[in-house]
Design a protein that fits this description.
Order of helices and strands of chain A: HHHHHHHHHH
Radius of gyration of chain A: 19 Å
Helix content of chain B: 55-70%
Strand content of chain A: under 5%
Strand order of the largest sheet of chain B: 1-2
Oligomer: heterodimer
Order of helices and strands of chain B: HHHHHHHHEEHH
Helix content of chain A: over 70%
Distance between the termini of chain B: 43 Å
Number of helices of chain A: 10
Distance between the termini of chain A: 8 Å
Strand content of chain B: under 5%
Radius of gyration of chain B: 19 Å
Number of domains of chain A: 1
Chain lengths: ~200, ~220
Amino acid sequence: MEYLNIFIKSAFIDNMVFTFFFGMCSYLAVSKTVKTAVGLGSAVIFVLVVTTPINYLLETLVLQEGALSWLGDEYATMDLSFLSFIMFIAVIASIVQLVEMLVEKFSPALYGALGIFLPLIAVNCAILGAALFMQQKQFANIGQATVYGLGSGFGWFIAIVLIAAIREKIKYSHIPGPMRGVGMAFLLTGLMGLAFLGFLGFEL
Amino acid sequence: MSEEKKSEPLFSKKNKALITNPLNSINPVTIQVLGICSALAVTVQMDNAIIMSLAVTAVLIIGNVLVSLMRNIIPGKIRIIVQLVIVAALVIIVDQVLKAYVYDVSKKLSVFVGLIITNCIIMGRLEAFALGNKSWASALDGLGNGIGYGLVLVVVAFFKEVFGSGTLTIPGLGKLTIIPESVYDMGYMDNGLMLLPPSSLFIVAVYIWVQKTRNPELIED
C-alpha cells in the first residue's frame, strides 16, 4: 500500500511536467509525433528506474551526514552532502553511457527504439530532479526510492505522450500565426496541468 | 582581456549584438525554448526569480569563459562530460554562496538551484558558442543570455505575484503591498490560480504571443 501511494503521488499528483516543469526542454522539442514521444518517454522511465536506486545508495552510504560511519568511528561525523550535485550528475551521465552500451549489445531492437534518445537523457532535468527530490524526501528504504523513480518516469511518459497526441491533431487547425508551435504547446500544457490539479489530495 | 590582438573595440557592434539579441530575437526561453523548468517553477515570488536569474547568469558567464579558455585542449569526444563537470562545480559554489547569504531564498529555491546543472541554456551556450569563440565574446554572450532568461522570469514573476497575492517581494526592499487594502474592501479578490503551476505556462504563452505579434519574422510556419 505504501508503495502504491508513492507511485500514485509521484506519477499524478506531483507530476514531473505539470507540477515542477521538469524536462520541459525535451518535452517540447520531441513531442511532435506520438511515436518519438513514446520512445523518449520509455527511455526516461528506464533511466529513472535504474539511476534513482543507485543515487539512493550513494546518498545513504556516502553523502549523508554520518553516512560514512561504516568506514570507522573517525568518519562518523563527516557530511559530504555539498558534493551531491556533482556525484548525482556523474552517476547519471555514466549510467546512461553504460545502459546505452548494454542495450546495444544485448537488445538491438530496443536499442533501435531508444538508442538516439539515451544520450539526450543525461541532461534531462527530470532525471537529476528526481535524484534531488529523492534526497529531500528521505525515503525509508531502497524499494520506496525505486518506486518513486518508476512513478516519476511514468508521469513524465504520460505527459509527453498526451501532448504529442494533441499536437498531432492540432497540426491541421487554424491557429493565429504568433501562437503557432511553441506558444500553443505552452497553452496546452497549462490546460493539461489544470486537469492534473484534480488529482490533488488523492490518496489510497 | 582588454588587450585583444585585433584592434576590435571591446563593445563593437558585433559584441553589442551578443548582448541585445538574446533579449528578443533569439531569447533563450521564449524563442529557443531552453531552460524552461526553472524559469517556470521559481516565479511565485519576485525575489526568488531575481536571485535565480542572477545565479544562472553567474554560472553562464563563468562557465562560458572557462570553456572558451579551454576550448583548444578539450578533446571533442568527451566535451559533454567536461562541460557537465565545470557547470556542476560552479553550481556547487553558487549553492554554497546562496546558503551563506540568502538562506531563506535558497530554501525556497530548493532543488532548482541544483537543476541549474541541467539547465539547457547553459549546456546550449557552452556547446553552441563558447566552444568556438574567444573568452571576451563568450562572456558577453553569457551575460546577454542570462539577461534574456532573467527578463522572462521577472515578467512571469511580476504577474504571478501581483495578481496572485497582491504583493511584490524585491530583495533589499522586502514585501511591498501593490494592491491597496481599499480595493480588497470593495470586493476584489486575489486570483488563486496565479499561485498554481499552470499559470506560469499561460503567462509565458501570452508573452510569446505578444512578442511574436510585434516581431512577425519570428512566427513559425
